[in-house]
Design brief:
This protein is of the alpha/beta class. The protein contains nine helices and six strands. The longest helix is centred in the last third of the chain and has 21 residues. It is globular.
């Protein structure tokens, strides 16, 4: 706790003074660039990864970066998504999984969750991932299996995200774009899902924008150069 408190003092002494104009501006409201949905894992820092300032990302975090579908009982994830899309008018949603995710490891190895019944219950939202894993043939190594499951979980949660009326309406209207990322914090790399080819590719190669399955040609104006 001492480390955390000292960090606050350091922020107040060294950082806040140089950003007072930013924080005064934020006091008048927020206009985030995107909703960033990611895992609660302490090794993941969305603002560090994207080099964004306060006010630029609206962040939703939980174990496994899961999104309950629209027909799930009322939940904070649905409220956050609705607020970001309807009230704040974000034009991008980034759903970011990450390497070595403990939640997805628990999905693949249920014995690891024997003392974590609530986590096991929560991970029911990721169960469709198991059906997407290779069946028969050569067995993947545990590391490769986890990497594949992390990617497939991003796609499953994007499907859930599309079931929310606010998201469906905005994507259909061409006002919102969805992105699936996987971040490897050990190597600093980011893979992005390329909907055209149905695979994850380095972010630098994912240059063609897609609105919920629409081709890049359907995207208007200021999105032409977006990832």
């Amino acid at each position: 706790m001492t480390r955390i408190i000292q960090g606050v003092f350091d922020f107040q002494k060294r950082i806040f003074g140089g950003k007072q104009s930013l924080f005064r501006r934020l006091g008048k409201g927020q206009q985030p660039l995107a909703l960033f949905i990611t895992c609660s894992d302490s090794r993941i820092n969305p603002n560090l990864l994207t080099q964004t300032e306060p006010g630029e990302l609206f962040i939703l975090r939980n174990a496994g970066n899961l999104v309950p579908p629209h027909d799930a009982p009322s939940n904070g994830e649905a409220a956050t998504i609705e607020y970001a899309v309807v009230q704040l008018g974000v034009r991008d949603i980034i759903l970011c999984g990450h390497a070595k995710c403990g939640a997805i490891h628990g999905l693949l190895e249920p014995k690891a969750l024997e003392r974590l019944p609530r986590v096991a219950e929560w991970l029911a939202l990721a169960q469709p991932v198991l059906a997407r894993m290779p069946q028969g043939g050569p067995t993947l190594s545990p590391q490769d299996a986890l990497s594949r499951a992390v990617e497939q979980n991003v796609l499953v949660q994007l499907q859930h995200l599309r079931s929310h009326p606010s998201v469906a309406e905005a994507t259909t209207a061409g006002k919102l774009r969805l992105h699936g990322w996987v971040y490897d914090f050990e190597h600093g790399t980011v893979l992005a899902h390329d909907a055209t080819h149905g695979q994850f590719v380095p972010l630098s190669e994912a240059i063609h924008p897609h609105f919920d399955g629409q081709p890049a040609a359907a995207v208007r104006g200021d999105f032409d150069d977006c990832i």
